[in-house]
Model the fold of this input.
Amino acid sequence: MKKSIFREYDIRGIVDRDLTPEAVHDIGQAVGSLAAERGERCIAVGRDGRLSSPALCAALKTGIRAAGLDVIDLGALSTPLLYYATHTLDDTHAGVMVTGSHNPPNYNGLKIVIDRIALHGEVIRDLRRRIETGNLRQGHGGERSADVCIEYIRRVSETLPLPRTLKVVVDCGNAIAAHTAPPLLRALGCEVVELYCEVDGRFPNHHPDPSIPENLVDLQAAVLEHQADIGLAFDGDADRLGVVTDTGEIIWPDRLLMPLAEEVLTRYPGAAIVYDIKCSWHLTRLIERLGGQPILWKTGHSLIKAKMRETGALLGGEITGHLAHADDWFGFDDAFYAAARLLRLLAGQSGSSTEFFAAYPTGLTTPELRLEMAEGEPFRFMERLTSQADFGPDARVITLDGLRVEFPHGWGLVRASNTTPSLVLRFEADHAEAMTDIQERFRCILLGLQTNLTLPF
Done:
């Protein structure tokens, strides 16, 4: 079994090359064994809309049952609904989601929850060691089906009614969000314009990853064409959210966190807010100004949620669009629920979405920039960079996760991705001159370490 599929936040690989039905069966038995040791008797299982997901899900269920645990088959649904099931079903706090998330169609993977906590780090890698040593429980579990979608939509729509009707364009990217997003938005009272809401695991129109601007072009056009109030986009398994205003402006998730944080801090003064190393420093300043506790943390949805539990934070998020509420919700990343919270805020005032977001500070920012490398090379490069780089006397270096270097008028970040063999970069500055200066400093240092890099800025 390939070591490379056991990632920091989940299990992921190319179907039939790295991730075979046989491998998924063994992983299912390992997960079942671990869950049984933690007192679970059954595990909820769901799958996304990828072409490979039904076969891999069948292998997963067989493996779990081979460990003697019962399976609760939730069918095809989004990751937040699998998480929701682990919080609301009476007989389990564990679940496994078969999903390739935002990866290309030939990928798939597993997101694993035990004790209502998403596994990450060494716990995921221990599953491989358990398989290799044969430390697997044996048994004959049963199987039953359950549907949580109707209850989920009812609960969210009754909890978050909108004070006025909004016209919303929703782009599901032909991914599994199409099963939930349109009916949920209608239950909230929205007028809904559907874009790519037919589930097709080939993703024929665009890739379901709202963190990439090119994937939002059709949504921007549809919002303008239909004169909608706002546009929403979901990733491949709907645990990440993208937002476009009525004028077609992309609102990056760190800016999206600002009104969500303000709402939480209005109701819970002094609350902690966790966000990842790639987020804007304007978010930090806003949280401080509102009397909250800003907590800058490592990238990764599992790591953000773990930090939320550790600190008692009521809101968490990442620049990729993972957003988790723990004030009136369960603390897992849920793009549907975050969208409903945002829509309620927007509907509560009379202005446009452009005017709504104009109230929150922003600088000159880049999206996530990626520099592809050979497998394993990004982490080796970061070791050299961290030990050798000198950004000057006016630089404040943060090595929490990669290298974030803050200057008087902006900052830059470079870190190794935990999901793909690449470096991830992002920059923010108060003005264009500062952006040019910061990027030039990074360019000189990065090329000084490796002259053949093709930098994405």
